[in-house]
Amino acid sequence: MIRLIVTSDTHYHPQWRQPLVDMVGQIASLKPDCLIVAGDVAEGIDNFHEMLKLLDVLPCPRLIIAGNHDVWINNGLDSLTLWQEALPQATSQHGAIWLENSNWISGSLGVCGTMSWYDYTGCNPNIGIPMEAYADLKKTISNDARYINWPFTDQVFATQLEEGFAKRLDTLEANPLIKHIVAITHVPVFPETIVKKQNDRVWEMGQAYFYNFTLGKRMAASRKISHVVSGHIHWKFDLQVAGVNGPIAVKVLGAHYGKPAFMVLDLPND
Ligand SMILES: [Fe+2]
Ligand SMILES: [Fe+2]
Known about the structure:
Blueprint: E1 2-7, H1 17-29, E2 34-38, H2 45-55, E3 62-65, H3 79-93, E4 97-98, E5 104-106, E6 109-114, H4 134-141, H5 144-147, H6 154-174, E7 180-185, H7 201-206, H8 213-220, E8 225-230, E9 237-243, E10 246-252, E11 262-267
Parallel strand pairs: 1-2, 2-3, 3-4, 6-7, 7-8, 8-10
Antiparallel strand pairs: 1-11, 5-6, 9-10
Helix pairs in contact: 2-3
One fe (ii) ion (FE2) binds next to loops.
């Protein structure tokens, strides 16, 4: 057996430090074999370092996925520089693993991850807004429009990440020693994790920027993915969806600013 602990949306900022210190202490006492952060690690690159510094006390491997907040422009760094250089470099400086470009393996268990990006497949069809309108609408709904300045459209970037993830997943699936795969994403990938707030039109419009169901379809077709854990929506889910080889456990962390959350996954790896 192996013990994975997954947290997400730690959103490190000095004002929320103490709850994060407490959480890392709890995690340490549970002696994980691997710790995973599923994105929105911190508010700004300096705080990204601070969060990773907190995790330095854990003797196990630490796997890091970025979230949309991690690529918000800050400290003179643009989103592309953060994404391609500053965040992966900070991760390796702390001896952690940037899961966006490498898999992690322990015995027969593989971990494969991506930030994943919303491609508007999560948009609510019942509110009468066509999918194509969500690029322009974004500035009225999501702060990502204000604070992310890379040159990609959301759909182009989402496709880039999907293709990278699919290659890493294929590598694990082709490996005869791997029996089970845990997939980690920041943006959730299954419609079963839609949070319904029918009297809140802004929330319902915002669903376009919460999900990537294209990736969920790819995962449901996987022969080896047994668990998918995500963050981003700050709303807890723990359910199962049908996969090609049986049910897939789908979990979303219910962390919030100043109220961090984690989950323990004790899984076979022999
Ligand atoms: Fe978040
Ligand atoms: Fe997020």
